[in-house]
Amino acid sequence: MLRLAFMLLMLSSIAGCSNHSASVSDRGQPPSIRIKSHQVDVGETLYSIAWRYDLSVYDLARANSLTDPYTISPGQKLSLIIPKTHHTVIAGDTLFSIASKYGLAVGGLARKNSLSPPYLIKLGQILSFDPLPIAPSKAQAIQAVNSPASERVNRTSPRTKPPVYSSNWEWKWPIDGQVVETFNPSKLQKGIKLKASKGSQVRAAAPGNVVYAGSGLRGYGRLIIIKHSDILLSAYANNDKLLVSVGQSVTQADVISNLGVDGTMYFEIRKDGDPVNPISYLK
């Protein structure tokens, strides 16, 4: 009898524990892992890689000592660590301590921010500066030495002239459709989703040059990226058929792709690498 009572007491204790499991809020989140490098895959361009990681193509190029036309090759390893170009003043900062922190000349930092002696700065003030040139990594240096002379010349002395971008234009809707998903970066919606009829023709939202056309970016399907200026790019995702190729110049009258049977397209605009609300631009 005593043994039976003991067993009942133990079962009651176990049942009580099962009803008091730790709340979700008590379970710490694992630390996030920052991706520091990217290995170039077949078909990728520097623009598509910058797009993947929400970076400015110019920052990515500078971080990897690349010059226009940003020639990269499959298997090449790119650094995703972008040097800082500004500093927000905190308590205890002086212009001298900030210059020392980033390895800058005090005079140059002062001129960049229109400061004169005695170089007074304020709490919360943002100081901008030109980052120091990034020395190539050991792997990059070995790659440069072992690459053919013709390839090294192509990397440093592009033979093609840089494209000229139109200046007198307004954004136009790429398709005649309805917005079914709005811009909401907090929910990872960095663009808008448009619904049209199946097989609809897609036109460039602005004149520019195609810098990516392929299906190498996960989640975008068949994708086209067009560069419109030094800081503005647009992307047209989930196409059925691509009608343009990298390096091609397009106008707003040009058909660049066709939509699939569901007639849905995802559209983004980026300004200096950052997603912006397309609705604020489209006319």
Would you report the number of β strands? 14
CATH superfamily of the largest domain: Glucose Permease (Domain IIA)
Number of helices: 7
Total number of domains = 3
What is the CATH architecture descriptor of the largest domain? Distorted Sandwich
As a percent range, the share of helical residues equals 10-25%
- What are the secondary-structure elements, in order, as H or E? HEHHEEHHEHHEEEEEEEEEE
**Distance from first to last alpha carbon:** 85 Å
Keywords for this structure?
283 residues, alpha+beta, Membrane-bound Lytic Murein Transglycosylase D, Chain A, ten-stranded antiparallel beta sheet, two-stranded antiparallel ribbon, elongated
How is the secondary structure organized here?
Layout: H1 2-18, E1 37-39, H2 46-52, H3 57-63, E2 77-79, E3 86-88, H4 95-101, H5 106-112, E4 126-128, H6 138-146, H7 149-156, E5 178-181, E6 192-195, E7 201-203, E8 208-214, E9 222-227, E10 232-242, E11 249-250, E12 255-259, E13 264-271, E14 274-276
Antiparallel strand pairs: 1-2, 3-4, 5-6, 6-13, 7-12, 8-9, 8-11, 9-10, 10-12, 10-13, 13-14
